[in-house]
Amino acid sequence: MLKTTSFASAIKSCNSLRTFPIRTLSYHPAYRPFSLHLSTPLRNTNKSARISTVNYRNFHTTSPRNVPIIPIPAAILALLKSGKLVSFVSLSSKTSLTLLPHSIFRRYKFSTKVFASVPLIGIALLLTVGLDQAPNTDRLRLVYLSEEEEMEVVTLEVDQLLGSQSGLIAPKENEYVQWLQNIADNIARVSVDDIRDPVREYDPQDPKIKSYDVNIICDSSTLNAMCAGNKILVYDLMISYLGFDTDMMAVIMSHEIAHSIQRHFVETHGIASFMLMLGDISRGLLWTVTESLGPYVNQKLNEWISGFITMETETTYNRGLEKEADLVGLMLMAKAGYDPRTALTVWAKVRLFCRLYIY
Ligand SMILES: [Zn+2]
């Protein structure tokens, strides 16, 4: 209750946002479609080739997203691209590696070949099925959850979070919720295209436009924002700390929407599953050698492997995803008409907050 009241008083103190800034079909002059240095060439610089590319893109109806790198029939891919595949490969590999030493010891040639092959075939299958190309940047990655599985997991997590914060969620008619909703709608509208495409006139009724549901959580102890599925959650401290500034909030919203359209949630799940499976296989292989060294050495070895996987997935890999969300978010906000240069101020302010209150 106290927290809600503090947000209400913060809202009252801000008089500059009595009318909502409606921006449509514009783009900021700072927008340079080809100025960001992504890892792949963005466009053929040959003039005639450029014209033919633009004409071609005008006629195709869907963006080339989530296309398997290795040509696999869609029906087979739909069956295989599932979290269950990772579980199946992991279980069968662990079982084979457990049985392998006994098979070698008893000199069963055929079963030795089978047990040794299962993990290798499993890894090859996972790499083939999971290999995917990220939209907007063409970065190669591993994705195992189907879109239905992703929606199921995300909906469950968001519902749990919103349920735990139910007394702190600002009502939909709140003018700041509508203000942020308007920013999200503007950014979502331009996200139907590849970020490297030039800005154009967007039809608000285009069925390809994904709608986002913005929620403000009135918890002045947390500086955070997140996007899961089609839900965007923004803590009120973020809004007041950034001075109720439209361009600054567009930086936050576009970064979060970029995470969503890049499907970073499933990517994190994919790399974690794959690394855990490799960890299990490594343990199985090492066990044949380290079994005689005793439980202490094996326990330390297990801890080292687990720590390495956690570090790679939760820090190193995640930093790459954050960087991609920053790049894609900057392009999105510029195409939607907001000033991407504001991002420098926003991230400096967030870093200052972290130094003062978190680290
Ligand atoms: Zn992020």
TrEMBL record:
It comes from the Eukaryota. Binds 1 zinc ion per subunit. The chain crosses the membrane at residues 114-131. Keywords: Hydrolase, Membrane, Metal-binding, Metalloprotease, Protease, Transmembrane, Transmembrane helix, Zinc. The keyword rRNA-binding does not apply. Residues 210-347 form the Peptidase M48 domain. GO terms for molecular function: metal ion binding; metalloendopeptidase activity. One of its GO terms (biological process) is protein quality control for misfolded or incompletely synthesized proteins. One of its GO terms (cellular component) is mitochondrial inner membrane. InterPro entries: Mito/Outer_Membr_Metalloprot (IPR051156), Peptidase_M48 (IPR001915). The keyword Manganese does not apply. Its cofactor is Zn(2+). Belongs to the peptidase M48 family. This is Peptidase M48 domain-containing protein.
